[in-house]
Amino acid sequence: MPANQPNSRSDCPISFGLDLFGDKWTLLILRDLLLRGKSKFGEFLGSEERIASNILADRLARLESSGLITKAEDESDRRQSLYRATKKGTDLLPVLVELAYWGASHDPKTGAPKEFVKAYRLDRSGLLKRLKNEIKA
Asked: Which domain holds residue 51?
């Protein structure tokens, strides 16, 4: 929500970001989309965090209206929709990688693969480039 809109808290760029993805579900949906290759409603529902279907529907609609994702009909099954990240959404990949690395570094029970941590430490920019290339277009 831009600062010139009435509900904006301030013109701070962090506040702007939090207005778009500052709840506990939105970044997890983006994680699944950008890092785990999920693109269908049911796939997002199957994530280990167990998001409720009404909350998922709301967050997907919010991400779409914010221009972070697009929604298209699945050509192989017209009853389903496919969600894809836009450039604006893909630009959040480094944020997700930083959060994942921070969590992996500070959570003694982390589920982060050791390969991810090693790749981050050895070549962060190479890791980001590889992950960006793996995102479904």
From this structure: 13-134
Using alpha carbons, list the distances in angstroms from residue 20 to 41, 124, 133: 20, 26, 25
pLDDT in tens, the chain (137 residues): 444 444 667 889 989 888 888 899 999 999 999 999 999 999 999 999 999 999 999 999 999 999 999 999 988 888 899 999 999 999 999 999 999 999 999 999 999 999 999 999 999 999 999 999 998 75
State the pTM of this model. Answer: 0.87
CATH number, residue 21? 1.10.10.10
